[in-house]
């Protein structure tokens, strides 16, 4: 499973979404993928490195969560080789990604890397997404092509109604054509490795990063909306003031 987001900052809504998806869909791992420069929404308030750090702090103790920083760092040009010298391994130096990230590029890259690692095993990718983000899917770059690379697991989110009437005609068509029952996915009835839309229910938490940022701006407490480690990091670095 892959959970992409701005994580500006990460909160319990994101973490419960990842955890519930892991459990409901019987996933092997969940990759949290903080975006550097999103294409389909405003630029995040806090820099990519701090957002990445907060996701790492929030997920560190979970053995089946992986944080992937490939939308934030890339190998420096002309320096992509790993080399060995004096019994030491030198990894390619990396630089901050400055261009806009497109999910279609990331999913192709991740799919390629995962296949290389687990080449002998069947592997399908599931993009985990909240209802609000799914309703805007048709604004994403090459959005229909995404169905060639992953399934979509769509979680209900408080205040967002996943009704057909809330979807554009094109998104609604995809929804009707691809809708798949969670049970059929879980029990292995689905043989396709991509292209299905699987709604699932998650623990309902009415928490948003927007609300956390507003609370911080107004000197209100954000404790217990995000893990203690993230709360401390925000305080220590005076973020979102
Ligand atoms: P913002 O308020 O800045 O728009 P956000 O809290 O919605 O941010 P994002 O990083 O934009 O967080 O979201 C990443 C993914 O997590 C999206 O798919 C979004 O739908 C989902 N998500 C965020 N918060 C929740 C929540 N409380 N419950 C379920 N899904 C959530």
Task: Itemize the secondary structure elements and their pairings.
Layout: E1 2-5, H1 12-24, E2 30-34, H2 48-59, E3 65-67, E4 73-75, E5 83-85, E6 88-90, E7 94-96, H3 103-117, E8 126-130, H4 131-135, E9 151-155, H5 169-178, H6 182-186, E10 197-200, H7 209-217, H8 228-237
Parallel strand pairs: 1-2, 2-3, 8-9, 9-10
Antiparallel strand pairs: 4-7, 5-6
Helix pairs in contact: 2-8
The structure holds adenosine-5'-triphosphate.
Rg over CA atoms, rounded to whole Å, is 19 Å
SSE topology string = EHEHEEEEEHEHEHHEHH
Which stretches are poorly predicted, pLDDT < 50 over at least 5 residues? none
Query: Ends: how far apart?
Result: 33 Å
Order of strands, main sheet, comes to 1-2-3
Mean pLDDT: 91
What proportion of the residues is helical, as a percent range? 25-40%
Q: How does the overall form come out from the CA principal axes?
A: globular
Number of strands: 10
* Distinct small-molecule ligands in the complex: adenosine-5'-triphosphate
Strand content: 15-25%
Report the total helices: 8
Helix vs. strand class: alpha/beta
Largest sheet: 3 strands, parallel
């Amino acid at each position: 499973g892959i959970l992409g987001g701005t994580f500006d900052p990460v909160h319990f809504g994101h973490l419960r979404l990842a955890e519930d998806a892991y459990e409901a869909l019987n996933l092997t791992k969940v990759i949290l993928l903080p975006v550097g420069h999103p294409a389909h929404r405003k630029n995040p308030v806090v820099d990519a490195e701090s957002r990445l750090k907060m996701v790492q702090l929030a997920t560190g103790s979970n053995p089946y969560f992986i944080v992937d920083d490939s939308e934030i760092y890339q190998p420096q040009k002309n320096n992509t080789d790993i080399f060995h010298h004096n019994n030491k391994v030198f990894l390619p130096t990396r630089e901050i990604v400055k261009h806009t990230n497109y999910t279609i590029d990331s999913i192709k890259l991740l799919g390629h890397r995962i296949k290389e690692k687990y080449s002998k095993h069947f592997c399908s990718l599931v993009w985990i997404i909240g209802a609000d983000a799914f309703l805007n899917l048709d604004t994403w770059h090459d959005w229909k092509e995404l169905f060639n690379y992953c399934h979509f697991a769509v979680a209900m989110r408080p205040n967002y109604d996943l009704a057909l009437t809330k979807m554009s005609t094109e998104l609604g068509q995809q929804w009707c054509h691809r809708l798949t029952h969670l049970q059929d996915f879980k029990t292995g009835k689905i043989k396709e490795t991509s292209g299905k839309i699987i709604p699932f229910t998650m623990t309902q938490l009415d928490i948003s990063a927007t609300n956390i940022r507003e609370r911080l701006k107004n000197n209100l407490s954000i404790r217990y909306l995000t893990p203690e480690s993230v709360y401390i990091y925000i305080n220590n670095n005076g973020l979102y003031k």
